[in-house]
Design goal:
The chain has 320 residues and is an alpha/beta fold. The chain has two domains: 190 residues, FAD/NAD(P)-binding domain; 120 residues, FAD/NAD(P)-binding domain, CATH 3.50.50. The protein is 25% helix and 28% strand. It is built from seven helices and 19 strands. The strands form five sheets. Strands 1, 2, 5, 6, 7, 8 and 19 form a seven-stranded mixed beta sheet that branches. Strands 10-17-11-12-13 form a five-stranded parallel beta sheet, with helices on one face. The chain has a three-stranded antiparallel beta sheet with strand order 14-15-16. The site of NADPH dihydro-nicotinamide-adenine-dinucleotide phosphate has 15 residues, from helix 5.
């Protein structure tokens, strides 16, 4: 049960690129932001190795180091970064109420939600073992490391289809492992896959194990779910593209979401259906899902929050 109550002007939930960028802008606008990092400070990027596609790092940087830089920059302008997990919210009246770690209640004039999304994994121990050493859930982030090599990708939705064609431009051969005898992806995407000569689609196939030499991935053991036949396919990279889950469970019943749970925002803004609550980053973006796009929308969220507060101060009604 909540005991202490603290009031803040701007509360940021989540500490990925969106949350930290929102924090930098909010702090510089003197909103004195308080950030709760969640259980994984730095978010999804702390699980990656090299990040080569974020502008400003000409020699690349590791994901954890980059998120350290983000944190330091946010703190430099006075963001109060706290380790803690938002366990519930109450957006029924102003100011908004947010409970942290089930014990502490915060009231906030504005809330910026940047809780991100979590990539779904197959759940194999070998997948975990080689994560970052040949196993990846992001072709756009990591495909480059497999230039000229053979890779496999699992999944049959639009993401898998798009990532397979992306990988096909870089890699020698892409094996696409589809668990049913058909795709879930749209016809147009399937058409693209089928017309890419170096993608081989293998239907009715599930991943049994990712094979490795202790350091890197060397192959994948697959099983045909119709015949039970097992095959080892030699590959250097293994990509998982079986969907993401947005981290929005605590907002159910308060905020509008799509069927998958992504928060809905007013197009071209970060406004949610609740006054003073803004959403940025992967939690509201199932499409681009890049660190740099998340950072951009974090900036938008802080500007939206700042403008909302300014309008309120001048008694102008902002309708979301
Ligand atoms: P989806 O949920 O659409 O697809 C997930 C895919 O992964 C399915 O084919 C599913 O198989 C497969 N899968 C799930 N679990 C396993 C498993 N354990 N083993 C093997 N395969 C598995 O996720 P996406 O990320 O592809 O797409 C999410 C949303 O984003 C969709 O609405 C999509 O249309 C949209 N999107 C649109 C794009 C575009 O328009 N260009 C690009 C990317 C995404 P099965 O089919 O058998 O269930």
């Amino acid at each position: 049960m909540s005991q202490e109550v603290e009031h803040v002007e701007c509360l940021i939930i989540g500490s990925g690129p969106a949350g930290y960028t929102a924090a930098i802008y909010a702090a510089r606008a003197d909103l004195k932001p308080v950030m709760y990092t969640g259980m994984e400070p730095g978010g999804q990027l702390t699980q990656t190795t090299e990040v080569d596609n974020f502008p400003g790092y000409p020699n690349g940087i590791t994901g954890p180091e980059m998120m350290e830089d983000f944190r330091k920059q946010a703190e430099r302008f006075g963001t109060d970064v706290r380790f803690g997990y938002v366990s519930s919210v109450d957006f029924s009246s102003l100011p908004h109420k947010v409970v942290v770690d089930d014990i502490k209640t915060i009231t906030a004039d504005t809330v910026i939600i940047s809780t991100g999304a979590t990539a779904k994994w197959l759940g194999l121990p070998s997948e975990q073992k080689y994560n970052g050493f040949g196993v990846s859930a992001c072709a756009v982030c990591d495909g480059f490391f497999f230039k000229g090599q053979d890779v496999a990708i699992v999944g049959a939705g639009d993401t898998a289809a798009e990532e397979a064609t992306y990988l096909a431009k870089l890699c020698k051969k892409v094996y696409m492992l589809v668990r049913r005898d058909e795709f879930r992806a749209s016809k147009a995407m399937v058409h693209r896959v089928m017309n890419t000569p170096n993608i081989e689609v293998i239907y009715n196939t599930e991943t049994k194990e990712i094979l490795g030499n202790g350091k890197n991935v060397t192959g994948v053991k697959v099983v045909n779910n119709q015949t039970g036949a097992e095959t080892d396919i030699p590959v250097e990279g293994f990509f998982v593209a079986i969907g993401h889950k947005p981290n929005t469970d605590i907002f159910k019943g308060w905020l509008d979401m799509d069927d998958t749970g992504y928060l809905k925002t007013v197009p071209g803004s970060t406004l949610t259906n609740v006054e003073g609550v803004f959403a940025s980053g992967d939690v509201q973006d199932s499409y681009y899902r890049q660190a740099v796009t998340a950072a951009g929308s974090g900036c938008m969220a802080a500007l939206d929050a700042e403008r909302y507060l300014a309008a309120k101060e001048h008694d102008v009604k902002v309708v979301s």
